[in-house]
Structures are given as C-alpha cells and as structure tokens.
Design goal:
elongated, 10 helices, 43% helix
Length: 360
C-alpha cells in the first residue's frame, strides 16, 4: 500500500476530528470524525465559511488568521463550536500551521468535550444518589427498630389501662409510630424489584398526561413532541408511570406556587445511539425531555434536588424527585436537570436494551 494512502486511511479512522484549511481558511479536507462532529459532509463544509463554526462570544476566526500569519500553533480549551444543524458543542481544539512551497495551510484537531463532561457529571450524580441512598438505609434501620419497640409498648400499655378513655393517648402513639414508619419507607423509595415486561414509553406518558390533566382541570397546557420510531423496551410500567408523574407533578406544583402565566409543560421523546450513562455505554437509549416554563430551581439546591427531603417549596416533601431517580436507576437509566428562570428541563435517559439484572 502506498505510504500516502496508508496515512490517509489512518487519519480517516481516527476518532479525533481532523480538518485541513488552505491559506484562505477554506476547508480542503475533513475526516469522517470531523464530518460527524460538525454534522456536515466535506462537500458542505467546503462551501461555508469557517467563521460560522464559532459562537458569537468566540474569537476563533481572528485566531485562525493570526495563526496563518505568524505561524504560531495554539490550543483552545472548552471552546464553543456551532455545528451545521445549529447545535453548540464544547470542544478542545489545536491548530498547527503547515508551510509548503505552494503556500500555507492549517491543520485543526478537534476533540469534543461535551460527552466527557457529561459522563463525569453523570458519574458524580450516580455516586451522590448511591451515597444518599446508603445513608438513608442506615438511618431507616436506626429509626425503625426503636419505632417498633415504641409501638409494641403502646399496644401492651393499652391492654393494661383500666380506663378506656385513656386509650386515645395510646392510639396517638401507635398512629404516629406508623406515620413515621411510612415516612421512612417512602424515603427508601421503591422496595420491590421492577416487574419487567414490554412497555411503550408513549403509553406511559399519555397515562401520566391524563392524570395531570385531571388534577389541573386543564389549567396546565401539555405539549407533546413524540418520536414514533422508539421501540418498546423491557421495564416496569407502574414504576415508570410513578417516576414520570413525580416529575410532571413537581413542575406543575412549582408553576402553580409561582403563579406562572400560561403554565406549559413540553414532553419530547427521542432515540439516541451510543450513549454512555455512568460507566456503561448503551447502543440505543430513549430520551424523555420534560420542560416547563416555571420559575426555575434555586441555584443553591440544584445539585441536591435528587436527595431525599430536599425541596424548593415550603409544603414539599422532597421525596418525589428522589423516588423518580431511584426508579430510573433501577432501569439502568438516569435523570438530569437543567434550569434557568423561565425554563426547567428534566431529561430521562432509559436504555432500550437493559440487562435482566436490575440495578439495586
């Protein structure tokens, strides 16, 4: 095999995006990884200005011109690039000038940071949730044992009291002990393993929408944007309904408490390929986005919203989102949240092919 063809084959099989610009900053070559990253073919990239790659706050085109004039290579970390479809990517890129008798060129190597940053964020989120669940389990054990003793002692005392009028006091002790036990059980989240069967994500979403519409009497607008190509997958329909209902109900209550004008919740489904959740890569993942136009989540609690007993509302229990995360974790998935004033987005990722051993 000729050396030139051999080198070209190596470059075209790299996972790193490689782009070659001529002296006028026009694209001469882009390997398949670059075409995939920038969401355009080499032919399309050669027809548009490189200036369109950079978001308005970036000074990329000026840096490119300076590089080709001075001959000094440089590297940018966590820069923002805009793909041909309009998506904004966080990338690291390095630029090296090449000098030939026929002129100058720029070799650009681009490495996407979004995926790595997302994997790191998801691993932190899963670790935090596992830590919180371990703490709650330990606390639940320490609370439930003495509660059982208190309840049993109250029952024995009730039998020994000669005056039936005094039974009201023992009943209060028994009922409060039961209430605390139920609260601890709710903190632990779903206690049973998922009942796995073939489920349709859109049937689940429609069931939840019916419940929310009944609760709000149509006061909250529900907008659907479904991808009908998403196949059925193995899951527990009852638990998934509970998880999605907790999120929509949280959004609904937040908007009602803030008095949001024209409260709206958008529900969008899509299928993503080759997605890494935590430390595991999945071939096909169902994404469910739930976006509301409410007040947003306070910055000080955003990183803790999936912890038990954390709520942005005075009357909230702080259990709904924690339970939802536990249910999606049992389906080997994950819930992420992004927020700003006027918009909060919860995104559920559920693998469409999961193992038969649920996450415990």
């Amino acid at each position: 095999m000729p050396v030139i063809d051999f080198h070209k084959q190596i470059i075209e099989n790299l996972s790193t995006a490689v782009v070659l610009l001529d002296g006028n900053l026009d694209v001469e070559y882009a390997n398949p990884a670059a075409e995939m990253l920038l969401e355009a073919s080499l032919r399309r990239l050669s027809q548009v200005s490189v200036a369109e790659w950079f978001s308005p706050e970036e000074q990329g085109i000026e840096d490119l011109r300076a590089c080709i004039e001075t001959g000094h290579p440089y590297t940018r970390r966590e820069a923002k690039l805009v793909t041909q479809s309009g998506s904004v990517l966080t990338v690291d890129y390095s630029i090296n000038p090449l000098f030939w008798l026929s002129g100058r060129q720029l070799l650009i190597e681009i490495e996407a940071r979004d995926r790595l940053m997302r994997i790191e964020r998801e691993e932190d989120l899963l670790t935090q949730h596992d830590t919180a669940r371990s703490l709650v389990r330990g606390m639940a054990h320490e609370i439930k044992n003495p509660l059982g003793g208190i309840r049993g002692a109250a029952q024995l005392l009730e039998r020994e009291l000669p005056d039936p009028a005094l039974h009201d006091y023992t009943r209060v002790i028994i009922e409060e002990a039961d209430r605390l036990r139920n609260l601890v059980d709710r903190l632990l989240g779903p206690r049973k393993l998922p009942k796995l069967e073939d489920v349709n994500i859109h049937a689940i979403l429609e069931r939840v929408c019916q419940l929310i519409e009944a609760e709000t009497k149509g006061a909250v607008s529900l907008l659907r944007d479904y991808d009908p190509s998403i196949p059925e997958f193995t899951g527990d329909a009852e638990q998934l309904i509970q998880a999605v209902l907790n999120i929509l109900r949280n959004s609904m209550q937040a908007m009602q408490a803030a008095g949001t004008a024209e409260p709206t919740i958008q529900i969008k489904t899509r299928a993503f390929r080759q997605i890494t959740l935590g430390a595991e890569k999945h071939r096909l993942v169902c994404s469910v986005e739930i976006v509301d136009n409410g007040p947003g989540i306070p910055e000080e609690i955003l990183s803790k919203i999936f912890y038990p007993m954390v709520s942005g509302r005075a009357e909230g229990t702080g259990l709904g989102l924690s339970i939802a995360q536990s249910i999606i974790n049992q389906h080997q998935g994950l819930i992420e949240c992004e927020t700003q004033p006027g918009e909060t987005k919860f995104q559920l990722f559920i693998p469409l092919e999961i193992s038969h051993e649920p996450v415990r």
